[in-house]
Each structure stands twice: as structure tokens, then as C-alpha cells.
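TEACHING EXERCISE
Course module: macromolecular assemblies
Task: Read the component lines below, then compare them to the predicted structure of the full complex.
Student: A.B.
Group: 4
Components provided:
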Amino acid sequence: MEDELTRKRPFTARRGLGIAAFLAPAVAFIGVFTYYPMVTGSQMAFRHWDLNDLTDTSWVGLRNVQAVFADPAWHTVLANTALWVFGSLVPQFVIGFALALCLRRRFPLRGLYQALVFFPWAVSGFLIGILFRWLYNSEFGVVNDLLEKAGLIDQPVPWLADPRTAMVAIISANIWYGVTFFAIMIMAALQSVPEELYEAAALDGAGKVRTLLRITVPYIRVTLALTVLLRTIWIFNFPDLIFGMTGGGPNNETQIVTTWMITITQQGDYGKASAIGLLVVAILLVFSVFFLTATRGKGTAR
Amino acid sequence: MIGKLGRAGILGGWLAITLFPLYWIVITSLKDPGDIFRFPIEYWPRSFSLENYTQLFGTAQFGTYVVNSLIVSAVAAAVATGISIMSAYVLARFEFRTKSALLMAALVTQMIPAFIALGPLYQMMTALRLVDNRFGLILVYIAMCIPFSTVMLRGFFENIPVALEEAAMIDGLSRFGALFRVLLAVMRPGIVAAFVFNFVSCWNELFLSVTLMNSDANKTIPTALNGFISSFNIDWGSMSAAAVLTIVPTMVLFAFASRHIVEGLTAGATKE
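Instructor-supplied answer key:
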């Protein structure tokens, strides 16, 4: 049966034409509306390309990249990006894992529960930024009101006006958004663990924590690693929420690499913005290679 | 390991955290505009009012944006889903040399920041006379949706036994006939999931539409929302009403298709 499911047909010339015909529309659309602009945009990174002065679009080599490195904002932006990615990812993973473990066993209305916690996914990052901007409003925001009622603060916190609390606020919004994804992926992975493994562990007298760490986690390690990798790339490339919530402010203090790119684009310096974009791709590629090597090296299971 | 009560606590706690922002924006939108900025903050309004909504449709032309978003998202999602069915079918059922390169090319589109393409895209669309044109935005959205929905549908196709098509072909149907009559019937949940996912992606898309649509008659909802926050003071009354009207349709769609979307997302990841 397994063979039936995965059997693929061999290649012949006539079949080749058929395959090409089926793929043609997709390739054409992505080629024209995605790849062509992306490639054109990438080469702007090596040109002087400023909307304020389009008379000179000459080749400048790596000067745009140097300009990025020389910009005083670059270090803040990098530090913010690291905080944004890991500060969001780790809690998303931990809470998502806990939810997945809780959801593993059936309970009444589990389907309804899943549909309800799925809700953040239907909302755009931009709109989530706006929702949380309202929740964290310093005067009429409900977060301050609840914290005051709980006796945790004496006077309203200007969440989005202070750089440090603004970072906490945007990360909390991102955690809220991303937990569901982890919960769903981990839940699906948990369902792939064979029941016999648990039975064997129980026979050996392993406790629940031990079973989780020794059986469950190693078994779904590959899925966990891939999920974390995909999310890292995605959160890194996710300016929408910050754009809606703080616009990178106050005073550029919540800019991550991709929101900074938007700001530079809005200033008209397409060359520099493109250079930032290419640096993002380079960082993500290097990270992916390191991450895959590191997670594959550990343990023996493939 | 934490007992039944702890489990219920975690699940209930997260549900409350998830739904509270939604509750809050709905409540805000239903308050009288004056009550939104009044102390003490009301968790349940003294008086309900539709003032924010009437204002939204009266002064902000919100109806036009809703119609634009509906047309663009529905057409783009339908075409993209159709195209993705074809490419996903081929990618699931055949071996050929360029296959892994094509899948890689789809993945790379996710890694490159979309902003890098906006300038050249704007120039190209200007040359094609498709700027500020709903048809132009539809074309761009179709391209945006294809990679992900292809990967998703491929997962669904791979779960259907080849034997099913072979049986249909033995019964005298051509490959096309087999694809359209038999497979698509079995695939219906997957197709619905892909369509919903595409629709919501287009409905929510911001940066492309801000770049390409500039006249009031052609704006989509996210572009309009962006206009609301660009002004120095946000009018939270209209904003909350607009947010509710943006979220509710996609939320309903997602709730209906959530089981199949989950299936589609996890099909590839847990196969090994």
C-alpha cells in the first residue's frame, strides 16, 4: 500500500510536454510578477538608485552595502532583530508545546476549541499591530487599566513611547500571534509517535517527564527543527506587525531589519534598501545552513 | 504530568488570552464614540451604538473598499487555486529533472523580503498601464498565492492513492478526465482549504496594494486602514469598526475550513 501511495511515473517525451503544459501558468505568473521584479530589485543594490535623483543610476559596486554597515542605526537594528526573533520564538515554542501536549488527548468540543484558538491566523500582521496598539494605548488602553486594577502599577505606563517597553509590547503581540502555529505543528507531530513506544516506556517504569524527554522529543526532533527554522525565517521577514503597531518608533528604537528597509525605501534610497534586502537573504541562508548542520549532527536518528 | 485541572487551566487560559483582543475591539467599536475615551474604562458599554459603523460607511466610503477587496480577493484566490491544482498535481505525481529546482525556487520567494521587488514592480506595472487597476492587483496576487497553495495542494494529492486514478482511466476516462472527475471530487476539502487560505492572504495583503493602488475608488481595505493610521491622530472609533469588519469575514471562513487547513499545513511536515 505504501508503494501505491508514493509510486511516481517515469519520464517520456510526450509526458514531458504534458508536465510542461500543466506547470506553465504557475511558472509564467511567478516569473513575471515575482522573479522579474525581485531580480531587478536585487541589482539595484549595486547601483546608485535614489528616487530624489534618478539622473545617475550608475553601477557603484558594494558602496550601498558599505553605507548600510556605516549607518549608526545598523547595530541597533541588528540587536533589535535578534531580540525580536528569539524573544518571540522561544515563548511561542514553549507555550505551543504545552498546548499541543494538552490537546493530545480528546476532550469534548476539542474541534471547536481548535477553531477558536486558530483565530489570530485569520488576521493580518498589520491589523494585529493595530489591535495591540489600542490595547497598549497609554491613556485609554485596557492593558494599563488591568495592571492598575491588579495593583501591579501605580500609574499608566507609556508602553509604546518608551523604547524598552515598546519592544516588550511588540514581542508580546507576536507571541500571541505565533503560538497557534507551533501548537498545530507539534500536535500533528505528536500524533505520529507510535503508541507502542509509550507502552514500552511505561513498562520500563519511565515517568511522564522522562518519557517526554527521552521518547517523544527525540522522535519528533526533525519536525521540531524544521518548524523552528521556518518560523525563524518568517519572523525575521515579518515587518507587518511592527509597521502597524509602532512604525519602528519611538525614534527608530523598535526597527528590525525589514522595517528599517521600509523606512529607507520611503526615504527614496532604493539602492540602500535593496542592499539591506540582500543582507537579509545572506543572513538567513547562513543561519539555515548552520541550523540544519547543528540539528542533524545531534543524536543518531535521521 | 500536570493533572486534569492544570490541563484545563492551560487550555482555558490561552483561549482567554487569544479571544480577549477580539472581544476588546468589538466592544470598542460598539461604544458611543464619546464613551471610548472616558474614565473609568467600560468593559461592558453602558449604551451600545452603531455610530462608529455609520460614520465609517458615511464619510470614509468604506463600502467601496469592501467591494474592491471582495472582488480582488475572490478572483485572485479562485484563479490561483486553479493554477495551483495543475502544478501541484504534476509535482505530486511525476518525477522529472527540474522538479527539485522548481520547489527550491518556490521556497526562495519566501526568503527574500517582499520590499525588494516593490520598486521594479511599480515600474513594470506602470509600463503595462496596470497601476491603480484592480485587474493589475489581481495578477500580482495570483503570483503571490501560487507557491504556498501549490505546496499545500501537493500534500493533499500525495495522500490520494494512484490506484484511484488508474481505476478511473481503466474505466475509459482520459488522464484529464481522471483528474477532473475523480481526483477533484476526493480533493474537495483540500481545494476549499487552499482557496480560503488564498482568499485570506489577498484580503489581508497590505504592501503591494499600498504601492499599486492610489485612487480612492480602487483602494482595498488594508490600504484604507493604513490611511487611518497615517494621519497623526488615529480615530479609534472608525478604526475599531473597520477592524471588526475586516476580521469577521476571514474569521468565519477560517473557522469553517480550519480542520482542512491544519491538515494541509501539517501533511508535508509529518510525513517522514
